[in-house]
Design brief:
about 240 residues, alpha/beta, seven-stranded mixed beta sheet, 6 helices, 13 strands
Length: about 240
């Protein structure tokens, strides 16, 4: 049975203001419908039906639209941050009881042309506590934030532009739940710290993806994703 998929959808979406002041990013209209609809159908097409959406800002609107996920071909559960934002890793820690021993993780603003089953198979074959999908951007595109060698991620820095980084985080990871064992429940934490802990232990495998990712986290990204989904046929899969 394919692993469950956690979708991080609790951010404020500040780069998309003013549109996200009253609507969460996951519900921004793209190619004629809220973005999360495209994302859920994409996961369903890959055979991934067990979905846990990690919500925060305006999360109740996502729950109202998606419901149990049946009309998109998936089964959806929800875990909300609560009164205090938990950050990307803190949200995962809270959701671990629903995610089990291992799970895939993606972002609520990412549309990925990747073979999810192949990524999962690579994760099981490597036997590591984590796997990060990475993509080599063209010159002048998104600034690289990761380095990889011999099938492993060797460095990762989300904010600082460091020498030797050639790849970007593609937006899909696979983790064993024990990778989060050092994080106390109920406290805010970022996935960067988890990735860096795994790198230090030689436990973060790398999976290189050839197709560029699409995202709606920025106005330019949303425009590109709109164009892709409108003209590629993916919106109807």
């Amino acid at each position: 049975m394919p692993l469950p998929v956690a979708i991080l959808a609790g951010g404020l979406g500040t780069r998309m203001y003013p549109r996200t002041r009253s609507v969460p990013k996951a519900l921004l209209e793209v190619a004629g419908e809220p973005f999360v609809a495209h994302q859920l159908r994409r996961l369903a097409a890959g055979g991934y039906e067990r979905i846990v959406i990690l919500t925060g800002y305006l999360g109740e609107m996502i729950e109202e639209f998606v419901g149990d996920g049946a009309r998109f071909g998936v089964q959806v559960s929800y875990v909300a941050d609560g009164d205090v934002p938990l950050g990307t890793a803190g949200a995962v820690v809270k959701a671990l009881p629903l995610l089990g021993a291992a799970f895939m993780l993606t972002f609520g603003d990412a549309y990925l042309r990747v073979d999810y089953g192949d990524v999962e198979q690579a994760f099981h074959a490597r036997g590591t506590d984590g796997l990060m999908t990475i993509f080599r951007p063209a010159a002048g595109d998104e600034a690289p934030n990761a380095a990889a060698a011999d099938g492993f991620v060797r460095a990762y820095e989300k904010k600082a532009a460091l020498p030797g980084l050639e790849y970007v985080d593609y937006g899909l990871s696979v983790f064993r739940s024990r990778a989060f064992a050092e994080l106390p429940p109920g406290q805010a934490a970022d996935l960067t710290s988890v990735n860096q802990m795994l790198i230090a232990r030689g436990e973060l495998a790398a999976y290189v993806v050839e197709h560029r990712p699409y995202e709606i986290g920025s106005p330019h990204g949303l425009e590109q994703t709109e164009h892709f989904l409108t003209h590629s046929g993916y919106a109807n899969e």
